[in-house]
Write a structure and sequence with these properties.
The complex is a heterodimer of chains A (218) and B (821). Chain A has 218 residues and is of the alpha/beta class. Chain A has 4 helices and 15 strands. The longest helix of chain A has 17 residues. Chain B is α/β, with parallel strands linked by helices and 821 residues long. Chain B has 5 domains: 213 residues, Rossmann fold; 162 residues, Rossmann fold; 153 residues, no CATH class; 50 residues, no CATH class; 157 residues, no CATH class. Chain B is built from 32 helices and 27 strands. In chain B, the strands form 5 sheets. Chain B has a 7-stranded parallel beta sheet with strand order 3-4-2-5-6-1-7, sandwiched between helices. Classes of the chains: A alpha/beta (218), B alpha/beta (821). Chains A and B meet through helix 1 of A and helix 19, helix 24 and helix 28 of B.
Amino acid sequence: MNISEQIITFAGESLTLTNQGVLFWEKQQALVLSDLHLGKAAHFRQNGIAIPSRLAADDLEKLGRLIGHYQARTVIITGDLLHAGSNKETDLLAALTNRHPGTGFVLIRGNHDRLPAAQLHSLGISAIYRQLKINDIAFTHLPAIEPDGFTICGHLHPGVAVQVPPYRTLRLPCYVVTPRQIILPAFSRFTGLDTRPVIPPATRYAFYEDGFIAIPET
Amino acid sequence: MKNQFQQTQGYTIIARWMQDKGMAPFRFQENTWQKYSRGYSGIVVAPTGFGKTFSVFLAVVIDFLNRPEQFAEGLKLLWITPLRSLAQDLARAMQEAINEIGLDWTVEVRNGDTDPLIRRRQQRQMPDILLVTPETLHLLLAQKGRDRFFRSLQCIAADEWHELLGSKRGVMTELAISYLKSQYAGLRIWGITATIGNLEEALQVLVPYPGRKARVTAQEKKKLEIISVFPPEVEILPWAGHSGSRLVEQAVPLILNSRSTIVFTNTRSQSELWYQLLLEAWPDFSGQIALHHSSIDSHIRYWIEDSLSKGRLKAVVATSSLDLGVDFKPVDTVIQVGSGKSVARFMQRAGRSGHTPHEISRIYFVPTHSLELIEAAALKEAVKTRTVEDRTPVVMAFDVLVQFMVTIALGGGFREDALHNTVRNTHAFSFITQEEWQWCVAFITTGGTIGAGYEDFHKVAVQPDGLLKVEKRRIGMLHRMNIGVIVSDAMMRVKFTSGGYVGMVEEYFLSRLRAGEKFMLAGRVLELVRIKEMTAYVRLSSGKGITPSWLGGRLSLSSNLSHFLRQKLAQAANPGNREPELRFLHPLIARQQEYSHIPAEDEFLVEMIHTREGYHLFMYPFEGRLVHEVMAALIAFRISRLYPISFSMAMNDYGFELFSDSEIRLTEDQLHQVLSRDGLMQDVVSSINATEMARHKFRDIAVISGMVIQNTYGRQKNNKSLQSSAGIIFKVLEAYDPSNLLLKQAYTEVFNQQLEEQRLVAAFLRISKSRIIYRQATRFTPLSFPIKVDSLRQSLSSEALAQRIQKLQNSSLKPGRKTKS
């Protein structure tokens, strides 16, 4: 894992964007990520669509390594942790949370997270919110701009299509950073990208294995 | 002197019936009847309008009359046709004949439009003759107890086999026939086809089984007349689209003097444009002409087809949507706007007029730019020599195979080795390896070799007795909905805010429009109001609208036609030619000759043109747009290997351009080097983005193999959690399962279809044998101009474009400095 970082200032706080799809808030020792869509591949397989099953294990392994690397005390998931109900892949989450007893796993419920709270707790999720506010920053699933607040959200799976000469288009996931909002990329590999243009002013931080490309829109 | 067959009771009855109707059997019909009666399978090759249907259909009837004891109650003849619209008319004609002959057989159609009541009755009791599409046939095979449908089956006929042959629908047909043949060894299989280049192969693909096979070819030929419509004057610097619009004036009298006319265009946007132009040129056409293409609501299309066959429409502007289908008797004139793209397509379109056997099919050719007139000359030559293209059969389409396997597993299950044999017996999978077969079995039973053993995969389950079956209702339901290989782009319905349905447009196009923007559809200017739940709400507007440029709407020139095109261009250099098209083009040819060169058949022309904008390198392989796309990327790649330089590219069916604002330095030697055959495919792969192309190809494969549930309107809600795009799955498979056969298939399709590897290799072979003519110029030449214009078209609005072209034409027509290298 080749972690590369991009530090930004948001709501007066210093936040670290990583090319691994997670944001690190050092002061809070918190990793923030979104749209894990755990169980999606398994759900597809149950319905006869042959998606390779290593996918979810890989995503969670990566999350485990990131928790270790940043010594995260809290992991905040801004929604869509689970794709649909519980299945074999969701068991993998329980194993992960078990391996990190010193870390709190906080979920902001997304439109896909339909499991009852009790079941989520049994997977090791310590707290569940509709919305959570830490200092001046509100964590939500759906993008919503509060006139004088700051939000970090997910849901959209933002991405960019970058033209690479000669004649290639690369589609990369990105963070969309505006003065009052950060939209996080989807953490799961098994998700699409929304590459529609964003409303300025905004900077899209697209990332790939070795680093970042910043695309400002003014 | 009557032969033995002609003395049979069956023959006598049919011959008498025909005689009563004032008809006499054609020789090829009699031949077919006789061959059939002797147990042959085969194909019948005959032009449209000569009673192809009656060859195979009556063969079965005669056989029945001669040996009724061999026939049992139930389905006797299964008739596969590619077109739904054909089925109804065919069934009517067959039923009429049967009634007149005095049999008690019933003829029925089964397809998506069939009344559920009739369908249920068919379930219990099949008619004697059933007309199906490849898709409905597979749906029948997906039914429990399918075997009882086919118990008395004697013959399978594949109508319009040439249409199915080159497509995955052909593979579906092969698989279904092979399955039925494995159950009922005595089946006779007959194809009916128009003339194509590879008839012997067409027969072997349809009937790869041992046994007696015949090819029956009609001696009768359809007479065809091609008439070029000449612009008032020759444009020395031609550009696409321009003169076509001017020729509308000349098309109007053709339509007025005909009973009914079909105006064929090559793209949907061109058809929208021509519809408007005709109305403007002759306002009285309003209400008398219609527009027919695949984005128009199917009900409106049926209405148009109906009105056309009843003679209620003066003209219909159409795309390939009307290439095939029922005969429109009143149509006596066909107009082709722009290139015909292939000899077969052109002949097929011509054949839409003048149906009765000895009538002449007349087709008017309207060039969209004057250079296209050479194509008219080329088409005449090709038609004269009947040099029709091959239809290359699709092989190793694993997406179709896995779909078929689930279909068979659904309708009562299969045993692995038995089905393996069935599959191997088809032409499409005759080379399937043991590993590939195992992979396909794993794909449907354990979800692929990667992740096998992960037991929550339930598509097809292996029963304790070894039978492979679909157990889950929901899987069966999803699969039935997904049977077929026609994958359409995600389409959005277009509706008026006041209610009323206009048609369908690709989601891709609409998603880029903002509310208030105008576009054209179904001959109307529409203003987008809002988009909600896969429906675009619009209101009627006026003025100018954007014409959706539908994806994949561009057909490429066939290699057959490009051969004749090169020939005719070479001949055009010789004055005194008697062909009117070439004579007409003389000023253009002369200018090309003066400022550059007219390539002879064994020459390859390269032009380096230096203008104020920069440096343009033009090459003219005449291999069609698709091949030129690949060649342009390849040549650009090879030049940039000599020294760093970047290009923009443009192409048409005749050639391509590489443009750079810095100097393109290319010596004669270097030119030979970049046109070399050495390391060809390797360089092609480096110069293009094969992954991106493969991802595009994977879209269809993912749907056909059942990895993506098609997003059909009104149904998507049920399967929302199963929605994913083929692009995502492609990405996941590339990362986790690179040896996935479906993934490999996507790359193979890129090489065979997108890159047209064979044709590309052949083109480079031809170039290597040609003398390379390298010319320098300071002005655009008649050959280069249309390519340049096409590249501008991409980037400019239409008004700016017209001005710009005017300017270019003027500056290029000034007497320029001639330089020859």
